Amino acid sequence: MMKTDFNSVSITGMSFILKDKCCAVGRRMLFSCSDAKDACRILETQGIFKGQPKNWGRFDQVSLTTYAAALWACFDAGLPFAQEKRRVGIVGFNQQGALDSNLAFFTDYVNAGRNSARSNLFVYTLPTTPVAEVALFCGFTGPVWYMYQPLGGAGQLMEEAACVLKDDVDAMLVICADSQEALCFVMQNGKGKELFPFSLVREHLIGKTSVREILQALDMLSEGAGAM
Amino acid sequence: MITAFGHGVDISWQSLLDNHTAIGAPKRISKARFEVAPVAESQLIDQRSADTSVWQLCRMLLDDPSLNNLPPGTELFLSTTVGEIELLERAVDSKSDASSSCLSNLCLKVEALLGLPQGHGTVVSAACASGSSAIALAAQRIRLGLAKSALIVACDGVSEFVLAGFNSLMALDKQGARPFDRSRQGLSLGDGAAFMVLMGSDYAQENNIPILAEVAGWGMSDDANHITGPSRDGSGLASAIKVALETSGVSAKDISFISAHGTGTLYNDAMEMQSFKKIFQEPVALYGIKGAIGHTLGAAGLIEVGIAVHALRESLIPPTVGLSEPDPEAFGWVSSQSRGVVGEYALCVNAGFGGVNAAVCLKKSIK
Q: 323-352 in B: which are within 8 Å (CB) of A?
C-alpha cells in the first residue's frame, strides 16, 4: 500500500488567544486583550464580525477560548462562518480534556446534596463540547471530534485532520485550547493562499501538546519561513 | 466485548437473540439522593475493589490471548467519553486532586497493561459517537497507508456522575430504554467495553489472519443545530450516512440491515428515522441494542459494530429488545423478533451531544 502524501494540503489561517493578547497570524494583526471574551469583542470593534452564540453566557472556559480562537482563525483564513452551513470539520485537543468542567459539575451536584444536578454544567463535561459549540455557531457540518496523543502532539492531529480533508470537507480547524489560552489552525486543500507549508508545520509540531509549546515551535519555524 | 450480559460476543449475541434485557435496578449507585433510573450494570464488576468499574472492565477485556500477537507498530485508539470518572467522584468527595481521571491517563494505563510504548496511544472522544468515530479515524489511517494496523479499545461505565447528568436532562426512562417504541421515554445507561483490531486486508491475508468483516466506508458529520438535541430533520446523520455509502462504493439498496443508535429518547429515535428515510427509499431491516445492554456511551459504537459483524456473518439480526409497539415512523423497519437477512453490507450509525454523527459501513468477509 502506498503511503499517502499531503502535498495539496495548506495551512491558510492561524490564530492564538493568550492571557493578554490575541492574534490573526496571517494578517499580522496583534491586539492586547484581557480574555477570550475580550478577543471576540475586538472582532466586533474592528468591524470584522458581529454576533454571539445564544448560549455564550453559559460557556465553560475552554469553550470560550476555543470559540475565540476559531473565529480569529476563520477571519485570518478568510473562511466564511456563521452564514450558510458549510462542510467544515473541527478537531480539538488538550491534555486535560474536560477536567475543569467535570469538577465544576460534580462539585456543584455534591454541594447541592446529591439531589439534582445542573444540565447546563453537564453539557460541558464532554471534551467535544467546546468544538461542538464552534460548529453550532459557525454552521460547520463536517466531522467534529476530540483527540489527544502525547507523543504525536499537534503534528499528529494535523495529520489526522489532513486525512479527513482529503476525503470530503472544505476545511478543517485544528484547535488546541485550555481554560485561558487557545490556538487554531485552518487547513484547506489547494496551494493558492498558503500561510505555512503543512508538511513543515506538522514536523515541527510533533510532540507539542500545549498552546505555549506550539507557539514556541512556530517562533523557531518563523525564523526560516518569515511568517510571523 | 463486555456488556451487562457478560464477557464475550457470544453471550451478548445470544441474549439479544433471546430478547433478554440486562437493564434493572442499580446496585452500585448508592450515594445519589435522586430517584435513580434502571441501568444495565455488569455483574463482573467487584464493588469492593479499589479499582474503578471502568478499569476493571478494561483489565478483564484486555486479558485476551489474541492481543499477544498484534502486528508490530499497531496503533492504539482509546474511545471513551468520561473514562474513569469514578476517580473524579472520589476526589470531589475526599477533596483531593482529580487529575488522574483525565482520559489521557486512562490511555497511558491501557498502554501499560498491553505492554505498548507509553504515549503512542490516541484518545478519541466524540460523545456517544466516539466508538464509530474511532473506527473511522483508524480505518482511514490504514486505507491511506499511514498505519498497518490499529487496536481500538472502547469503554465507559455506569456512574453517579453520568446518571446525575442525564437525570438533570430528564433523559432517563424509569421503565428502562425502549428504542423505537411508541411509548419510549428515554435511555438507560450501561457498562460496556470492547476491543477491535483493524488492519489492511493485504496484511491480514499475507499473515493468514482471519478477516471477520471489512470496514468498507465511513462518514462523520455534525448537525450544527443544537448542543444537546439532535437535528429534528435528521439531515446531519443523513449526511454522515451518505458519505459512508460513497466511501464504500455502494448505494442505499446494497445495505441489508441497519444497526441504529436507538437510545430510546423521543428526539434521537425520531431524528434517526428521518435520516434513514432521506437515504433509503424503502424500509430496511433495522435494530437497536440499547434496550438490552443500555447506552454504553463511548463503548456503544464499538460494541454495536461488533454485534453487526456477528449479524453479517450469521445473516441474522437480533430483535430490538424493549420494543412493544413500534413508533409509527419506525413501523416496517424495526421488529421485536430476530430476522434473517441477505446481502453483503451493513450500516452502523451513532449520534451524540454536540450534534456529532458517525456512520460505518461493513462488508461481509468472504469465508
A: 352
CATH number of A10-222: 3.40.47.10
Distance from CA of A28 to the nearest CA of B (A): 30
Q: List chain B domain ranges.
A: 1-367
**Topology (CATH) of B1-367:** Peroxisomal Thiolase; Chain A, domain 1 (3.40.47)
- The closest alpha carbon to B260, from B199, B175, B181, belongs to B181
Nearest CA in chain B to A58: B227
Q: pLDDT by residue (tens digit) across A40-57?
A: 999 999 888 888 887 888
Q: What does the domain layout of chain A look like in residue ranges?
A: 10-222
Selected for mutation to probe chain A from B144, B152, B218, B360 (highest A CB count within 10 Å) is B144
User: What ipTM does the predicted assembly reach?
Assistant: 0.96
A69-89: pLDDT as tens digits = 999 999 999 999 888 999 999
Is the CB of residue B17 less than 8 Å from the CB of residue B292? no
Q: Could A102 and B82 be called an inter-chain contact, meaning their C-beta atoms sit closer than 8 Å?
A: yes
pLDDT tens-digit readout, B134-156? 999 999 999 999 999 999 999 99
